[in-house]
Fold:
Amino acid sequence: MRRLPPVLLKDGCSHDLISLIRTILAACKEISFRVGQGALSGVLGSTLDENIQGETQKKLDVLSNQLLKDILLESGYVKAIASEEEPGTVAGNPDAEYIVAFDPLDGSSNIDINSLVGTIFSIMRAPKDSDPADPNIFLQKGDQQVAAGYVLYGPSTMLALTTGQGTRIFTLDKTQGTFLLTQDFAKVPEQTKEFAINTSNQRHWQPAMQNYISDLLAGETGPRGRNFNMRWIAAMVGDVHRVLSRGGLFTYPQDTKNPEKPYKLRLLYEANPMAMLIEQAGGLASTGYERIMDIEPEQIHQRVAVILGSKEEVEACLSYHK
Ligand code: AFP
Structure:
């Protein structure tokens, strides 16, 4: 078993970037412990509050957000942070080089049923001489990300991380408290027989997605000529980890269920970091009409349609969207 190299990743990463990633992982180790404690640590269940997204906040949402926010702002390594659980951005060290956008606990509706949850993070450079209190410093295309990753709190706690030189997978050794490198370069198989979508929204999808999924469900008797399998974890971090591990297509497409909210997933701290991890592992990540990491963000909690995973299957899905 290879140990984590002392500077985490060579790849020409600066000392401050390595220290910033280590700071994020320090918070994630604590979150892993709390998630693992479950009912024993009294953090299950919901608060009486809603977040900026209008979603009921779970106790672990609030705890995870506070842990990441405190450790990052105290570290001095970030100029500002943006979080799914924060209405606006929070200013940090005006002299710091990096900004971090994160979803502190993705899939939090899974907490009370002991299912998969995770932390997703995206690291960007702060524009030169920028104001740490200016939320517009986060409005950068996904291609501007310096690093991206997630920590999956499952039977084992795993980290997927990219700094632009491929996607690596690490596993937390809970006896030592260190993430050990367990897969050097993750590779998404170009073909797959597995897709992930919340099928209960089928009547609300656009015709392109209805036709694509219908052809998958037709199996070997339909136009695809082969059978497909379906999975839905209801935590993007779990579905994306499966895609990174064995291929697949994950999608949360546009739907008309709530006219004010045609999309579900957030661009800055879900779609963009996952898109970087997937593309660095040879997969594709699209909205159906454009590459996710080409999108010019307009506001920090902006939502977007997501179709990502095995290259040939994403291309097949996109062919229905022409
Ligand atoms: P929560 O964090 O509110 O549980 O939402 C998780 C998520 O943003 C994403 O991780 C899942 O893929 C998706 O929502 C699940 O959405 P549905 O509950 O509509 O299936």
Summary: The longest strand covers residues 98-106. The chain is about 25% helix and 25% strand. The two ends are 46 Å apart (CA to CA).
